[in-house]
Amino acid sequence: MRKNESADTIQLHIDGESEQFDIEPGETLMSALRRAGHYSVKNGCDEGVCGACNVILGDEGLTRSCLIPAVSCDGAEVMTVEGLLDDEGELHPLQEAFLDHGAAQCGYCIPGVLLSGYDLLQRNRDPTEEEIADALSGNICRCTGYVQQIEAIQAAAERLRDVESTVGGES
Questions:
Q1: pLDDT over threshold 80, residue 92
Q2: What is the pTM for the complete model shown?
Q3: In this structure, are residues 51 and 43 in contact, taking their beta carbons and an 8 Å threshold?
């Protein structure tokens, strides 16, 4: 990126790693993340409609990064789909469930869909089919028809509840 007099420097904590870089005036969080090499954050519509640019933004939760000025996020915690991996690089139960249920086809929308599902499961470990459909209503997927995605989120919720009950039972 070319340096200029009007660029701002911000620091973000992306998927647990601190990154500092210059941003242009008016640059969105989506654009800044992509320039930093986080290509799972997709540019689908630039209007906050499709969900391809979803990230988890600190306490704000699920956020359309195409609508947020990067400068307003200085110091923020940002989670992309890569942040779902554990410290050993193992897939999150939600990612495993998407694979098991064939819930991804072309893959363009999937990072945003996964983060929508993750955000729901952080708030509700036993969502109904309707609650899952509502959580996915902000994502446009042209390939799957959403049925497999809903089934995958239901399966992931069950896996997470099983893990929590096992961990809770061992205490």
A1: yes
A2: 0.92
A3: no
